[in-house]
Amino acid sequence: MAHNADYIPTRDADFDGWFLNYQNYVVTKTSGTPPAWTHIPAEKVTALAARYDAWHAAYLKTVGPHTRVDTEAKNDERKAAKAVIRPFTAQYLKFDPVTNEDRTAMGVHNKDTIPTPSGVPATVPVLEELKPLGNARVEIRVHDEKTPESRAIPYGCNGCVVKYAWGKEPITDRDALTQSRLITRFPYTLDLPPEASGSVLSITACWQNRDLMGRPSGIACVVVS
Nearest Cα to 194, choosing from 158, 173, 224, 160? Predict the structure, then answer.
């Protein structure tokens, strides 16, 4: 059965406990506990453990009275931790000798044994920022409505379809957004033709799951520089 939820907890307290268990499990299995996970380089394990230590130290500073700087540092460490966890999971924990029992114990998704349709994406992307970069280039930042702290594509989706057009005035009709692009990573820089400079870029977005597209976001606009 396909998974429709992110395996990384959203709440900081849950994430802290989950991450501790995750990295402890990896450290134990790569330290010789049979069957040992010899496929994971020692330096990757060390980096994972160090990432937890940095996150945990920053998180503890926000448990009691704290400053905005403490909160920002904690948020930065969470983003840095997730940037390590996701590729680590994908590269080292999806295949043998890691078992379904191991993945369950670590709190990550097991491999699907029976392919099932993932269905239409249930959530909507939020266009949080359209930033003109000059030379008819615009940086696009998106997050899912359910996970505002994450910039990851929702589990089960293969990307975000953005539909856009430019002109003298903002466009309010989605059918008039005749250009489209599939984006698989954010932030993303959209390159427009030189003649788009000075015009208004109108853009909407929706998650895509294979050939199925979810509900579109509202239309956001920005003046192209």
Answer: 224
The alpha carbons of the chain give a radius of gyration, in whole angstroms, of 21
Q: Give the model's pLDDT for residue 156.
A: 78
Per-residue burial over 63-88, b = 16 or more CB atoms within 10 Å of its CB, e = otherwise = eeeeeeebeebbeebbeebbebbeeb
Taking 3-state DSSP, the helix, strand and coil percentages for the chain, each rounded to the nearest 5, stand at 35, 25, 45
- What is the β-pairing status of strands 200-209 and 179-183? unpaired
Q: Where are the alpha helices (DSSP H) in 130-194?
A: none
Q: What is the helix (H) or strand (E) element at residue 140, kind and residue range?
A: strand 137-144
Spatial separation of the C-alpha atoms in residues 118 and 48, rounded to whole Å: 31
137-144 β-sheet, strand order: 125-134, 137-144, 188-191
The model's pLDDT over 144-169, given as tens digits with 9 standing for 90+, comes to 999 888 888 888 788 899 999 999 99
Average pLDDT, the chain: 89
Q: What confidence tens digit (pLDDT) does each residue in 176-214 have?
A: 999 988 898 889 999 999 999 999 999 999 998 866 889
